Amino acid sequence: MIKKEMIAMLLAGGQGSRLGVLTSGVAKPAVAFGGKYRIIDFPLSNCINSGVDTVGVLTQYQPLRLNTHIGIGIPWDLDRNIGGISILPPYEKSTNAEWYTGTANAIFQNLRYMEQYNPDYVLILGGDHIYKMDYEVMLEFHKANNADITLATIPVPMEEASRFGVVITDESKRILEFEEKPPKPRSNLASMGIYIFSWKILREALIDLQDQPGCDFGKHIIPYCHERGDRVFAYEYNGYWKDVGTLTSYWESNMELIDLVPIFNLYEEFWNIYTKNDVVQPQYISQDAVIDRCIIGEGTEIYGEVHNSVIGSGVTIEPGAIVRDSIIMKSTSIGAGTKIYKAIIAENCVIGSGCELGVGEEETNVQFPKIYTDGLVTIGEDSVIPDHVKIGKNTAISGGTTLDDYPSGLLTSGECIIKAGDRR
Predict the structure, then answer these.
(1) Whole-prediction pTM value?
(2) β-strands 189-198, 343-345: how paired?
(3) Bridge pairing between strands 333-334 and 316-317
(4) How far is residue 355's CA from residue 221's CA, in Å, rounded to a whole number?
(5) Which of 138, 163, 134, 166 lies closest to 152 in space, CA to CA?
(6) Which of 195, 269, 304, 326 is the most exposed place for a label (fewest CB within 10 A)?
């Protein structure tokens, strides 16, 4: 049997429904971020930077892009003969076949994967947060406190605490109470969804609760272990951590990368973020182009103006086009004379000439008021926008649209065009 001190289990099967049309065809951890990365690159890079060289990635929803991106783990130095990276989708067993129904259920279904390494500790991670963390420091905290379970926690504004599992601790950071998304939180110390378990404790709890429907760490495993007297501690993290689960937080965290002094720095040599690099041609910036405060991906051609934006690789921005405060993902083209304000445009889109995106007053989105907010225009991958149309705020478009889809050449604020086959 191979012996590993600590292995990581990375939960990357999430649909990311609050990202709307961005995740209609791709899992949330595979969504592009910061011009050249995907969201999953951050926890994977944290693993290898922390010396964790055995990672199981649990996939489920729309896994193709994610699997292709991860491959055999070469960008993160996780192509190992012993350990390395393993993709762990749900699979048919001799007695039944079932999807992962909760975070802990997904881990339970992969007990045999973990058992082959007989680890001392198991690190449980989500695949949808942007942060840099040395898990080795968290493990040292776990050992020093002789903990059975350690939760990574972060102070959040009190008014946001009800969105998280929150903990109340004593002076030694031992957790006295744990509440999952309480309506009236009594603490602002939020769980980050990052856990270190001593292996014996995790294995027992997963087996004991295997029949719990939708078994989840925050709702079931942690309270169960706490109630039976296990030593559960809170490791307080004070660095940058962003849950990019909503379009607004996703847009904000991309915009924070281009601040004059970014609070999250992609360029630190001592803590690299690794990703799969496609072989593409160099950038081309024309003589008449105007660019300020931007991240520009490789292979991108800019003939127009780009201000305060994050532009992926292989993007074309034609003459007279103006892009402001926006995220334009890989292999999208922006037509001549088109003006774009505060938009998120996914991969492989074609935006016609003479269009205007982000016009008019803000109106609440009619179909999905909690998803399309804060004045954003969101366009799903492989979408086509015809020439000379105007698109209002808090809008969403997915699929190949034609002029017939835009009465009087306008999609008013708060409206959506979701073509057949696309769900949001």
Answers:
(1) 0.92
(2) unpaired
(3) parallel
(4) 51
(5) 138
(6) 269
User: CA of 116: how far to CAs of 3, 81, 85, 97, 421, in Å?
Assistant: 8, 14, 14, 22, 41
- Per residue of the chain (424 residues), what is the pLDDT tens digit? 678 899 999 998 766 678 899 988 888 888 999 999 999 999 999 999 999 999 999 887 776 777 888 887 888 888 887 788 888 887 555 345 566 767 898 899 899 999 999 999 999 998 889 999 999 999 999 999 999 999 999 999 998 888 888 999 999 999 999 888 888 889 999 999 999 999 999 999 999 998 888 888 988 999 999 999 999 999 999 999 988 889 999 999 999 999 877 888 888 878 888 888 876 789 999 999 999 999 999 999 999 999 999 999 999 999 999 999 999 999 999 999 999 999 999 999 999 999 999 999 999 999 999 999 999 999 999 999 999 999 999 999 999 999 999 999 999 999 999 986 544 4
> Phi and psi of 92, rounded to 5°?
-80, 125
Q: Spell out where 170-257 has E strands.
A: 175-180, 189-198, 232-236, 241-243
Percentages helix, strand, coil for the chain (3-state, rounded to 5) are 20, 30, 50
